[in-house]
Design a protein that fits this description.
The protein has a seven-stranded mixed β-sheet with strand order 1-2-3-4-5-7-6, sandwiched between helices. It contains nine helices and seven strands, in the order H-E-H-H-H-E-E-H-H-E-H-E-H-E-H-E. It is about 40% helix and about 25% strand. It starts with a helix and ends with a strand. Strand 2 and strand 3 form a beta hairpin. It is α+β, with helices and mostly antiparallel strands. The longest helix has 15 residues.
């Protein structure tokens, strides 16, 4: 195991020392990792980070800490509890009235949509992201393994992974997740972002 891996500590985000700006560090990871989806609202990742820093429900997130830096983040919910809550006023503050309002409408539907008939004893793993300087060092793998080992669920779902995100798919498959559903992207949108399908993955306790 690399020396960097030895320093990684997986902690619930709401338990991080208040002197560490965990929310803004998480937002930077989010803006970097989801830039492909958010480019309409702004091409500036710093602006995106500021706009979305408010939304994380910290007690639903786990963060991988290296010293005082957030190396990675992911949420794990019961499929009914929200991991993010969007505030239109915060979005308008950084994205402008029109784009902020649109983000509040369209992303709220995407991020806060309730699952229908979510299976029992199942955890929903959401918003997996790694800070750019820590990629390729096993951070995401450690976070997901920690969740599987330390949460009470028997099964886990990861919904809507872009089919272009090959590194993520390889990681999830290595951890034992298997594709069980795919959702085609409308042709016009697919031409713009290069994504053809969103894949859903399932992990079952052995």
């Amino acid at each position: 195991m690399k020396k960097d891996d030895d320093k990684v500590k997986i902690i619930k985000a709401d338990r991080i020392d208040k002197d560490i700006d965990v929310r803004n560090q998480m937002a930077e990871i989010f803006a970097e990792g989801f830039a492909q989806w958010l480019v309409y609202f702004s091409k500036d990742k710093n602006i995106l980070a500021k706009a979305f820093a408010h939304m994380f429900v910290l007690d639903q997130f786990y963060v991988a800490m290296v010293d005082n830096k957030v190396a990675g983040m992911t949420a794990c919910t019961d499929g009914n509890t929200l991991s993010v809550r969007l505030n239109k006023n915060e979005l308008r503050k950084y994205l402008g009235f029109i784009k902020g309002s649109m983000a509040g409408i369209f992303l709220k539907k995407e991020f806060e949509a309730p699952y229908k008939d979510f299976p029992t004893k199942t955890g929903s793993i959401e918003f997996v992201g790694t800070a750019s300087e820590f990629r390729g060092k096993g951070v995401a793998s450690q976070m997901i393994q920690h969740i599987i080992q330390n949460t009470p669920y028997h099964h886990y779902l990861i919904e809507e992974v872009a089919d272009t995100n090959i590194p993520a798919m390889r990681l999830y498959e290595k951890l034992g997740f298997k594709e069980y559903k795919r959702k085609p992207i409308p042709e016009k949108i697919a031409k713009k972002n290069g994504i053809n399908n969103l894949l859903s993955l399932r992990y079952e306790e052995k």
